[in-house]
């Protein structure tokens, strides 16, 4: 492994200049009566300033729990068991896993804001949209009510809500799903965060609205310059907006790289299988989609070795079922690529 | 909103009219009437009434008139003159009888209610937030005991303790020396000294129940996405708790708050009987047992009116509390 690659991926913990958020060996476990569920089991990730990083994976692979762990929003019995999350603020790096509550509250929404899947459920239905945005602004900035309200109106206008002066006093249940998600985004960006975590922001919306919301996010990113961590199970959505992409399987990142490269030249058998299962325009007619064989294993019975080996086409008997694969940086193709797979360990 | 209120008012009037008829029918249902009770009492006392006396009594109370005439006499006097009729057994106007007891009933109900809220809300919130903690288990245990112990038994135990160890006068709301005196500071203090026992008795099961309800309602809301949003915004924990999930969890509470209204005059019959408290409950009970027609009829009618009004109050309170309801009223 050459030294240049090592720095490029920041694997040794030395952050490159443009890294905003660095997650190292994050473990979030759920201590249940029936056993321990390792929802996030050693995730390493970086988010660069201003980029869109898509986290893709099937339901239950730990993407949402991972995202929530960043702001320590995991409900009990979930618990962050270990790891480091470093946020590089302008004033210097801050570690979030061990941060005290006061510092954490400052970082929430001010540095890292979130948009959730269900726009109906994630806004309070008994408070006006305006009051919820105003609350966020006034929590983090020393501004008066009127100024905060103006900011709310301005943000609602910016996310494309018609008649923002009136809508600011509307309740969430008076808006459509798409409008609600826009309001949520307006609230998320009201404090100008440097990272927006969007947890399945378009899943609950119809396809047209979904496209509009994605476009809005891209526009806002250009304008505000924040980084976006987009959690999605939809490879199409990821392909549409992502700069980088991380593929997760059972609590670990199995493949990471530039979005185009990952989609064009997947390396991990899981990513390959995932892409084969996607319908694609231009593919020869009447070819069957290939489903990934097997099922996601039950949460308590995590397979030994590589968690994907029982479903893997390229499984190496005697190795994959015993050895836990490490992250392997790839020299080829260009750029920042990593695969967590034993097939590539010899190669490097 | 006005249209909605207007329609509501019409429903209220129709409902009350129906209730008044049902009430009147019910109080006429049992075999016999007040006069037969008088005869039975007289016989029990070893006396007997002459047929002439009986006819006289029946005539005096108009018991031989057709039912609808009796109904009309009863309801028109109430509506036109505020006259609820005469209690046969007490030989006093029903309005006086009930009026005397309203104040004490209300004081008792309101103060036990305040005690219930003051204790149950904080504990319920704590129990929900710290679900399955030792504290939660402890309060649940106490709560179940509170719900399981019958009120009259608790009343008897407390009265025994008060009498045996503190030498307090047992039962009632006043010591004998203040029983008939005019209101003064001493009497008020005496009242307060007696009042805590029934308040505790009535409050215990109410508190226990309220803790369970508050806990369950809050648990329904505690892990909703909007709570995550509020937390992600950086709100301090206790503040977000009160502003979002607790607020949402109070909606069921508001939708039943109006039903407390009838309790103001008629509540807690058993405890009042056991502790011989001069509230409305025992009065109603004795009226029913004596077939004291106008007393019972008026009582049931007043309770029904309060219930119906209470329901309207609840709906309005809920509309005030929850914008979703408010907007729906406005649209209607």
Automatic annotation (TrEMBL), chain B:
<dbReference type="GO" id="GO:0055085">
    <property type="term" value="P:transmembrane transport"/>
</dbReference>
<feature type="transmembrane region" description="Helical">
    <location>
        <begin position="141"/>
        <end position="163"/>
    </location>
</feature>
<feature type="transmembrane region" description="Helical">
    <location>
        <begin position="253"/>
        <end position="275"/>
    </location>
</feature>
<protein>
    <submittedName>
        <fullName>ABC transporter permease subunit</fullName>
    </submittedName>
</protein>
<dbReference type="InterPro" id="IPR035906">
    <property type="entry name" value="MetI-like_sf"/>
</dbReference>
<feature type="transmembrane region" description="Helical">
    <location>
        <begin position="295"/>
        <end position="321"/>
    </location>
</feature>
<feature type="transmembrane region" description="Helical">
    <location>
        <begin position="9"/>
        <end position="27"/>
    </location>
</feature>
<keyword id="KW-1003">Cell membrane</keyword>
<feature type="transmembrane region" description="Helical">
    <location>
        <begin position="195"/>
        <end position="214"/>
    </location>
</feature>
<comment type="similarity">
    <text>Belongs to the binding-protein-dependent transport system permease family.</text>
</comment>
<dbReference type="Pfam" id="PF00528">
    <property type="entry name" value="BPD_transp_1"/>
</dbReference>
<dbReference type="GO" id="GO:0005886">
    <property type="term" value="C:plasma membrane"/>
</dbReference>
<keyword id="KW-0472">Membrane</keyword>
<keyword id="KW-0812">Transmembrane</keyword>
<dbReference type="Pfam" id="PF19300">
    <property type="entry name" value="BPD_transp_1_N"/>
</dbReference>
<dbReference type="InterPro" id="IPR045621">
    <property type="entry name" value="BPD_transp_1_N"/>
</dbReference>
<dbReference type="InterPro" id="IPR000515">
    <property type="entry name" value="MetI-like"/>
</dbReference>
<keyword id="KW-0813">Transport</keyword>
<keyword id="KW-1133">Transmembrane helix</keyword>
<feature type="transmembrane region" description="Helical">
    <location>
        <begin position="102"/>
        <end position="129"/>
    </location>
</feature>
């Amino acid at each position: 492994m050459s030294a240049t690659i090592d720095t490029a991926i920041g694997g040794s913990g030395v952050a490159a200049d443009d890294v905003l958020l660095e997650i190292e060996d994050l473990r979030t476990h759920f201590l249940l009566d029936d056993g321990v569920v390792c929802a996030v089991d050693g995730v390493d990730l970086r988010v660069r300033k201003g980029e869109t990083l898509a986290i893709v994976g099937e339901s239950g692979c730990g993407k949402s729990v991972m995202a929530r762990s960043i702001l320590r929003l995991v409900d009990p019995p979930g618990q962050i068991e270990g790891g480091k999350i470093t946020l590089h603020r302008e004033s210097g790096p801050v570690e979030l896993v061990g941060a005290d509550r006061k510092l954490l509250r400052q970082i929430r929404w001010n540095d890292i804001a979130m948009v959730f899947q269900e726009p109906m459920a994630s806004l309070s239905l008994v408070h006006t949209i305006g009051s919820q945005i105003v609350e966020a602004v006034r929590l983090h900035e020393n501004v008066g009510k009127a100024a905060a309200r103006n900011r709310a109106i301005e943000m609602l206008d910016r996310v494309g809500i018609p008649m923002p002066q009136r809508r600011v006093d509307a309740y969430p249940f008076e808006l459509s799903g798409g409008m609600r998600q826009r309001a949520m985004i307006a609230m998320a960006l009201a404090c100008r965060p440097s990272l927006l975590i969007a947890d399945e922001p378009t899943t609950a919306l119809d396809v047209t609205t979904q496209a509009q919301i994605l476009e809005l996010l891209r526009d806002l990113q250009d304008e505000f310059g924040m980084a976006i961590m987009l959690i999605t199970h939809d490879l199409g959505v990821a392909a549409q907006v992502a700069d980088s992409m991380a593929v997760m399987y059972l609590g670990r990142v199995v493949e990471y790289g530039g979005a185009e490269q990952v989609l064009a030249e997947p390396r991990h058998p899981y990513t390959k299988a995932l892409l084969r299962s996607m319908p694609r325009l231009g593919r020869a007619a009447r070819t069957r989609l290939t489903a990934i064989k097997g099922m996601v294993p039950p949460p308590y019975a995590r397979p030994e070795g590589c968690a994907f080996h029982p479903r893997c086409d390229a499984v190496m008997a005697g190795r994959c079922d015993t050895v836990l694969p490490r992250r392997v940086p790839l020299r080829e193709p260009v750029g920042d690529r990593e695969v967590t797979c034993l097939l590539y360990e010899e190669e490097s | 909103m006005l249209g909605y209120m207007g329609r509501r008012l019409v429903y209220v009037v129709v409902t009350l009219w129906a209730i008044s008829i049902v009430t009147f029918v019910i109080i006429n249902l049992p075999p016999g009437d007040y006069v037969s009770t008088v005869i039975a009492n007289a016989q029990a006392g070893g006396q007997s009434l002459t047929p002439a006396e009986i006819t006289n009594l029946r005539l005096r109370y108009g018991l031989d008139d057709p039912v609808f005439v009796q109904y009309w006499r009863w309801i028109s006097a109430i509506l036109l003159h505020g006259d609820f009729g005469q209690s046969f057994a007490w030989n006093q106007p029903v309005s006086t009888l009930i009026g005397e007891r309203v104040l004490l009933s209300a004081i008792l109900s309101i103060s036990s209610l305040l005690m219930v809220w003051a204790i149950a809300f904080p504990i319920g919130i704590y129990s929900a937030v710290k679900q399955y903690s030792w504290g939660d288990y402890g309060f649940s245990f106490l709560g179940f005991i509170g719900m399981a112990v019958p009120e009259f038994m608790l009343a008897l135990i407390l009265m025994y303790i008060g009498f045996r160890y503190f030498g307090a006068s047992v039962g009632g709301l006043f010591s004998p020396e203040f029983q008939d005196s005019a209101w003064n500071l001493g009497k008020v203090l005496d009242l307060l000294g007696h009042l805590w026992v029934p308040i505790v008795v009535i409050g215990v099961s109410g508190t226990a129940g309220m803790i369970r309800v508050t806990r369950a309602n809050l648990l329904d809301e505690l892990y909703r996405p909007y709570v995550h949003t509020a937390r992600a915004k950086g709100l301090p924990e206790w503040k977000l708790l009160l502003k979002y999930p607790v607020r949402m969890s109070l909606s069921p509470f508001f939708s039943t708050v109006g039903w407390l209204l009838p309790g103001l005059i008629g509540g807690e019959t058993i405890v009042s009987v056991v502790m011989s408290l001069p509230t409305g409950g025992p009065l109603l009970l004795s009226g029913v047992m004596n077939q004291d027609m106008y007393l019972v009829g008026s009582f049931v009618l007043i309770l029904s009116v309060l219930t119906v009004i209470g329901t309207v109050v609840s709906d309005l309170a809920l509309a005030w509390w929850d914008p979703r309801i408010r907007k729906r009223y406005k649209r209607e």
